[in-house]
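Structural biology now treats backbone shape like a language. To illustrate, our science desk offers a sequence and the tokens encoding its fold:
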Amino acid sequence: KIGNLTSAIENWSDGLAAYDVLLDSANEISSEVNSWLGEKHFGLPYSIGLEIYKEMNSSHESYLDSVREDDPDNYSGIAEEVVGYLEDLHGSFALAPEHIRLQIYDHSKKISHSLHEIGVGISQVLPIIIACVYMKHNVKNIHCPYNLILIEQPELHLHPKQQCDLGDLFISTAKDKNDTHVLPQMIIETHSEHLL
């Protein structure tokens, strides 16, 4: 049990567990994270979502190259081989396993990005937003091992307005209007007067 807890804590410390949460969680967490990213809070033109995709082996491309090299003057023979190949490819593609990845949709440019294609500020604040939303939904009692959020300088690479929005997120995470839930405790080390 301790090994699993240590592994989980290490994954949260580098932010990777946040993405696992989105891959494994219900739409409720994704919706709330998108709400925090959007116009209502941070005012960013982004939303997160899942994309299902399939990958094919790169040997298919080398096969076509080899067909062209075998008989460059016999176009009809090549065309027949290519048609047969494409039929095989379609069958292979239908059997290829599906994969899921997180995408960031930029509403202002109407394009999707993978996580490594976004800016440093959003890439660093996104795991914080996910952690706060996840913790607020999942802390069941005061003795829960995940009852504490520690964050070091969350304001780095953020515009002052977004630093203030981050402060609102922290307040929302640590405060229960009805005093009916156990909420995570937060320790935040910051140099930002906007967060204070």
Observations:
- The beta strands are 46-54, 98-106, 111-114, 148-152, 185-189.
